[in-house]
């Protein structure tokens, strides 16, 4: 049935080409010109313009342009093909909203599945550019079947090849789940919106009145839900960033990430880090200062830069090699681990592990966030995700405890017990079961109750506890810290550690990157 459909479509297509007196190539141009009239007034680029921004100039080679349907003989609602990014092969599909709102019917699904199969065979990344009204209503259940096949293919590819989605239009209904199964979602402000059901359905069902942007725009998904990893001001910025992100990754799980030659001396001392930690242990500082100072050229690419800010997840290079950084951020909620930050870090760790990217963990965590909301919201399950992610990771793992590392949160942030390969601590590290205040309340409760001056006594106990436990010495004696290092030598020490571990990674398929 599908073949007959395609056959009829191709006959129509040939009639149109003859009628217009043109070649196959400029039919794509005509299609693009028509699309501009629909897309540009909406502030959006066309499917072809987007592909050209994404790929190296002149590298795009379209396939399946003749696979058309009776309704859309000039071309179906997706443009597919391959090209290169920084000289390396990449497969791409770009939904064309100017054709039936980019909706997905049987033929669109077939084209997308074909490009994903090719990417899997070629062991190269696939980028999906999303601008679609969802399942093509006129095709009914066939379009749902098409989506189901794409979702299954996303899962088959998960952890094998990097999959990236760029949301540059509506991504409605079925169109949301394929991106959600990919590794990274880029969303462009004002034009990119993701929602399972639109504002009209929401109003009917719940009575809530909401705009498309409020429901599924960049604020909703870049900051609130965390569905989108990157938020971009313009399409140009989004495609530039996708190119940059891919430069960190191997082409597939069968390779190690590429190495870049760096001018930045790997044994460079960073004197400014000696004075970074504030005098008072509860005063915040910006963990980005640590990261930017120890990575090559001060350059990091943060993932989920607007979401769960109490943890930083970034791609960086150290000595020219890609490293995934997970770091608590004392500037936000004192760097505490909560549900969102645990989930954010877990998926990042699992992506890095799947694609042979070594992990650097920087720790300053006072604990898990207490509270009924967190407990009832599943902090236990979320924390377990991070424990699972680190425990299963077989890539080289280096951890540096900067300041606080208390209790369960110490364990979960790549402690030695979970399998960190090398663990260093700054002299300011406080590795303990809990912070002094909480500990004193428990172990000195009786003394404090009986005291005439409990406040003064508490301070005395707190000072004693800090003296005894709030340091890296006990952990170092137990072999749970390899070395106490000067902050200024962190770049050098970390570089050396990763060098030692260079042969640890066994490339090959490990696991998928399930959305957590
Ligand atoms: C068929 C569609 C379509 C669809 C849009 N079009 N969505 N055709 N199936 N799903 C068509 C329109 O009829 C219109 O055709 C053209 O595309 C442009 O659409 P407009 O509405 O004029 O554009 P705009 O004003 O920009 O609005 C875009 C939109 C809106 C917000 C996406 O079209 C919309 O709400 N569409 C339906 C979204 C939706 O509910 N999808 C869920 C489908 S069910 P003409 O000929 O007039 O130009 C689904 C279930 C799968 O996906 C679940 C799997 C898990």
Provide the descriptors you would attach to this structure in a database record:
alpha/beta; 2-enoyl-CoA Hydratase, Chain A, domain 1; 8-stranded mixed sheet; binds hexanoyl-coenzyme A
Describe, in short, the structure shown.
The chain is of the alpha/beta class and 516 residues long. The chain has 20 helices and 16 strands. Strands 1, 2, 3, 4, 5, 6, 7 and 8 form an 8-stranded mixed sheet that branches.
Structural overview:
The chain has 516 residues and is α/β, with parallel strands linked by helices. It folds into three domains: 2-246, 2-enoyl-CoA Hydratase, Chain A, domain 1 (Alpha-Beta Complex), CATH 3.90.226; 271-429 and 471-500, 2-enoyl-CoA Hydratase, Chain A, domain 1; 434-470, no CATH class. The chain has helices at 2-20, 24-39, 47-54, 106-122, 141-157, 177-181, 199-206, 212-216, 218-225, 235-246, 287-294, 339-354, 372-377, 379-392, 407-412, 436-443, 445-450, 454-469, 473-477, 490-500; strands spanning 61-63, 78-85, 88-95, 126-132, 163-172, 184-188, 193-195, 230-232, 300-303, 311-318, 321-328, 359-365, 397-406, 422-425, 430-432, 483-484. The strands form two sheets. Strands 1, 2, 3, 4, 5, 6, 7 and 8 form an eight-stranded mixed β-sheet that branches. Strands 9, 10, 11, 12, 13, 14, 15 and 16 form an eight-stranded mixed β-sheet that branches. A hairpin with a 2-residue loop joins β2 and β3 (88-95). α16 (436-443) crosses α18. The longest helix is centred in the first third of the chain and has 19 residues, at 2-20. The structure holds hexanoyl-coenzyme A. Hexanoyl-coenzyme A (HXC) binds next to α5 and β5.
